[in-house]
Amino acid sequence: MATFMGINLFGLFGQLLVGLINGSFYALLSLGLAIIFGLLKIINFAQGAIYMLGAFAAYLALQYFGIGYWAALIVVPLVVGLLGVLMERFLIRPIANEDHLYSLLLTFGVALVLQGMFTHMFGSSGLSYAIPDALKGGNKLPFMYLPNYRAWIIVASLIVCVGTWWMIEKTKLGAYLRAGTENPALMQAFGINVPLMVTLTFGFGVALAGFAGVMAAPVYSVSPDMGSNILIVVFAIVVIGGMGSIGGAIITGLGMGIVEGLTKYFYPEASNTVIFLVMVIVLLIKPAGLFGKEA
Amino acid sequence: MKISKFNIVLLGLALVAPFVFYPVLLMKVLCFALFACAFNLLLGFVGLLSFGHAVFLGTGGYVTGYLMMNTGLTPELGILAGTVASGLLGAIYGKLSVKREGIYFAMVTLALAQLMFFVFLQAPFTGGEDGLQGIPRGYLLGLIDLSDNLNMYYFVLAIFLFGFWLINRTVHSPFGQILKAIRDNEPRATSLGYNVNDYKWAAFVISAALAGLAGSTKTLVFQLASLTDVHWHMSGEVVLMTLLGGMGTIFGPVVGAAVVVGIQNFLSGGELGNYVHIIMGLIFIVCVLAFRSGIVGEIQKVVKRNFS
Lengths: 295, 308
Prior knowledge:
The complex is a heterodimer. Chain A has helices spanning 9-40, 47-65, 69-92, 100-122, 148-170, 172-182, 184-189, 194-216, 226-241, 246-266, 274-285, and strands at 3-4, 7-8, 138-140, 145-147. By secondary structure, chain A is mainly α.
């Protein structure tokens, strides 16, 4: 057994890997939240339920339509994104001018309905989804065993996260988006269809959660409450990173996954609480979060 | 608050109610009504949406439950201890959260509540997933046997009336006026020289302590303290009760609590149990989209339009 200064390297890197995987999902989900919050000032409480929906959609697509993992990775985010578009258009837009707390409550209601429906249809025990053939197996590294699918999760979610960041921060489309949040009326005057932009952005943020759901299906069991527990952690991460900060969401998401993994190795009792503890400390030092601007 | 005929009739009804309805159900309604009123003190009168208020309900419950089981404390002291514990936790959590506004405040309170959820899940004295069971109700002041449901009911009613009175007193005091001023226009309240965060913090502590009082009482009624009371779903439920009944109204949270507990009780019996979440979610959506003033708020509007 490989040890270094009394530390079991296999155990340590194993937990680090688990942490990175969790962190990838945290990053994807908090990125979606940050985009939606940045543009619409809406906390999408349904984000967790939509992540769950993504996982179930992948499962059902395989069971009933024979749509495999790779196709699901494209189709499910599109379908889920479309659902987000409808949700924005018919539920959120009517209350867009009200206190933002109402949109939080509304999306919470949507989350309850979705979770209730899936519990009703599938019960609360988990279903399993097989790892795609191309990603079965793994590599034995000198200090750990790395399953291919897990490596794929980390790489794929990094690509999606960085791509999204690049699109928003570096392209013209992203500049429109950011300008639309700063001054919607001015953007309208320039001939940009802001309501459409808002709708599509909401759809994209939601699609990210759907994508995370498909990615998660083979590693976690697909169950109706898989979204509700991860959501609160993601909220804490969004607070730590600074709300609405795109880069903050990605970095904090991955970072907190690693922190969680390390805690699981050195002091497992605290592994569930460590992210919330970090949040308390960050709030005491920087109330606007690590990457947030003071409101 | 003036004692009107309306209030005397209500009190009379509350006194005879246990002879008509099952007392345990009524006690459940009263506990949740107090919880919702405490929550509404923040949401309705200061404009702060605390999305983690269940943590105070649960903390009161666990502290009372633990003390009642392990020390020979009388029920009123047990409840007092639970209330104080929740108030202290509220003092710490309030300090951390009231600096943030709106959605930020909601998320910070939610995440802080989740911190305690895991503490209660893992701490050695809380019974983990099982919670604390078989908590004795004890003898009130060492004399009155609370294992009798009727005695217990009047004790719970007295606690509820005390809490309800205290909230009313707070809302209608000069302190309450400042809270409403903060709700309506925070920069103006600041420019008038009020230290806004201190007022918010004080309101937070009162609300937390009263939520703890509700939780302690509930634990005694059901002789059970469990994770359900700390889970964030419970925080959502109290928001629903307040929203449905009418936030910012005095009786709204009571009506909302009665309706929600009534629906849950009605559905929990049979096949419909699975639908509870779906129906709660739909009520949320309909409330936000169609009637934000809630039941009591809408009735007040109708009364105002037609009778004055």
